[in-house]
Amino acid sequence: MARKAASTAQGTPTTGAAKSRFGQLRGWLAAKLSYDEGLDENGKPKERWCPEQEAGLISKLFFFFTGGLIQKGSHKHLEQADLWTTHSQDEPAKLWEAFERDLKATATAQAPQGVLSKALWRAHGRLFIVTGVIKIFHDGIMFTQPYILEELLNHLTGPEDKGAALGLAFALVGCAILEALFINVYFNMLFRCAR
């Protein structure tokens, strides 16, 4: 009885410390993954900004950096002042300079102004190749899902090991997650290219 009371007394601070650590972790995650209204280190509003520029890899892959704006939009109508500025790599002046440089590089004696198709390939060719590879992976995953589902159904209806069926179910879920991730990245890259 005394040992139980001692363990209960000792458990209380540990539980409080665990809650405190959980609260700290939750606060840290919220700071990393959310929209901070564009405040500087003094807590004053920055000039309009794009949180994607400061977002980490995971935040960019899963679009966590958009959470704050979505949350703000669920509470009120968004106005122009609520929206972000254009990402620095998407600024029209920079894009025009890069395209003009690529167009001049394709100029020949027959086409002194440059060749538009070659200039577009120089400007965006690598991006189209990368998005093509991503789309091939996406389509491959998409076409494997029916086969995994067929094997899963065969395992469930037959006398085979149920552990293998569980593994196939996890594989099916994993494929669905990867498919969604690949298609999100694919469309984000293409929409950015179409800027």
UniProtKB/TrEMBL annotation:
The chain crosses the membrane at residues 127-148, 168-187. One of its GO terms (cellular component) is membrane. It comes from the Eukaryota. GO terms for molecular function: ATP binding; ATPase-coupled transmembrane transporter activity. InterPro entries: ABC1_TM_sf (IPR036640), ABC_transporter_C-like (IPR050173). Keywords: ATP-binding, Membrane, Nucleotide-binding, Transmembrane, Transmembrane helix. PANTHER family: ABC TRANSPORTER, ATP-BINDING CASSETTE SUB-FAMILY C. This is ABC transporter, multidrug resistance associated protein. It comes from Monoraphidium neglectum. The lineage of its organism: Eukaryota, Viridiplantae, Chlorophyta, core chlorophytes, Chlorophyceae.
